[in-house]
Amino acid sequence: MTPQDNRDLFAIADLAREFGISTRAIRFYEAKGLLAPERVGATRVFRRRDRARLILILRGKRLGFSLRDISDYLSLYDANRTQQVSLLIGKVDERLASLETQLEDLQTTISELKEIKKLADDRLDKAG
DNA sequence: ATTCTTACA
DNA sequence: TGTAAGGA
Predict the structure, then answer these.
(1) CB proximity A19–strand C (7 Å threshold)
(2) HTH merR-type domain: which residues (predicted)?
């Protein structure tokens, strides 16, 4: 409305709509300490800062990090930029290692299934 | 209508 | 996290 006004003020429903998540999820993140929106009475008022943090939360989730990991990372958002980067590197390495293990396990499972299928197909040929 | 908290699944 | 309940 006003020319330079509340483009940095968001209601919980605004963010929920924008990112396709529930208002419940946003409240949940706050309860876990990942978000700390201001309050006008009892109603939450989010600023660009909170929105930026939410984006980081969602990205972290998408990459498979726990809310705890994301929380630890966000906690250093203000002060230790360097420490934050170090933590990030550690978590990323951890995640990468985990994914690589999972990938190996999946490849093993895929190979086993293919072998089973091959044997089963052979039996079908001999029989049918 | 919308949001808030609490509690249970 | 969804859903329900009871208020503001």
Answers:
(1) no
(2) 9-76
The answer to whether A58 CB is within 7 Å of strand C is no
| Cβ of A42 near strand B (distance < 7 A) | yes
Residue nearest to nucleotide C2 (CA to C1'): A24
Determine the distance between A9 (CA) and C8 (C1') in angstroms: 22
CA distance A63 to A115: 32
Under a CB-based contact definition with an 8 Å cutoff, are residues A26 and A45 in contact? Answer: no
Tell me the average pLDDT across A44-69: 95
Angle at A15 between CA A11 and CA A17, to 5 degrees: 110
pLDDT at A77 over 80: no
CATH fit for domain A1-70, picks 3.40.50.11260, 1.10.1660.10, 3.90.1720.10, 1.20.58.460? 1.10.1660.10
Output the pLDDT for position A3: 39
Res A5: pLDDT? 57
